[in-house]
Amino acid sequence: MTQFRDRGVVLRTIRLGEADRIVTLMTERNGKVRAVAKGVRRTTSKFGSRLEPLSHVALLGWQGRGDLDMINQVEVIDTFRPVREDLDRMGPAMSMLEVVDQIGQERHANPRLYEMLVGAIGALSERNSPMVAPAFFLKVLALEGSAPVLDACVSCGEEDPDLLVAFDLLEGGVLCRSCRSGRPLSPAGLSLLRRTLGGGLTGVLAEPRSPTTDEVTALATEAMEAHLDRRLRSVRSGQVS
User: Fold this and answer.
1) Best CA proximity match to 118, nearest among 56, 74, 206
2) CB hemisphere CA count around 209 (13 angstroms)
């Protein structure tokens, strides 16, 4: 067995036996890690409460020969308490954990995905912005090489933003009036999408909830679900499961 040190965000946990848990984390240097935390469900456990979903931790563990590693020590970096104590923020936060759980590959480093997750949860902790989760979805799609085409009609190449009126997941981006299919897209929605993926994230996260942010949230969620080829349970359930 090989010892390793890393930082990671707890994505989910599963009970194992009477006192243990299997903990899934997205780590900085080891990608997605599934590890056994011995005795964490006992009341005498020193770090049971540190290994809950959303916790950002520094850990010491042993890499096993099979699918599961072993966690020996855990120190909390951040619990993101404002998110935990607000149900309105927990839903989006859990949806981001679910996406990373699906995107991340076990023992394949993806430091950018880890950094994006930590940054997104941190942003949600600072401000209950309706755009944190949809912006995260769109940024992850871009990281995966599947960002939607927003600068021109994906069918004919029309670039006039006044003529770009629809978005089609199957086509992979926006469509003009002549080629329209999929769902309608408002000019404000197109602008917000472009700002999100074009470097204007600070302003995007300052947007109050509106029909436009709701539109982009629905579109970004559907785009992510299409990429994953599955529904996001934490979104469709309305709140944390």
Assistant:
1) 56
2) 9
Strands 69-78 and 32-37: parallel
Contact 41, 48 (CB under 8 A): yes
Q: Does the global pTM surpass 0.70? A: yes
Strands across the sheet with 164-168, in order?
173-176, 164-168, 183-184
CA-based nearest residue to 212, from 232, 234, 236, 196: 196
Instruction: Write out the two tokens for 83.
Output: 């998110």
Beta strands 32-37 and 20-27, pairing class: antiparallel
| CA–CA dist 46, 25 (Å, integer) | 19
Give residues with Cβ within 8 angstroms of 180, minimum separation 6.
165, 166
List residues bridging with 74 in a β-sheet.
59
User: How many Å separate Cα 39 from the centre of its chain?
Assistant: 29
Under DSSP, is residue 177 helix (H, G, I), strand (E, B) or coil? coil
33-79: per-residue pLDDT in tens? 999 988 777 766 666 678 899 999 999 999 877 789 999 899 999 99
DSSP reduced 3-state for 34: strand
79-116 pLDDT, tens digit per residue, is 999 999 999 999 999 999 999 999 999 999 999 999 99
Contacts of residue 120, Cβ cutoff 8 Å, sequence gap at least 6: 96, 132, 133, 135, 136
Tokens of 55: 């916790």
- The encoded tokens of residue 186 equal 């408002």
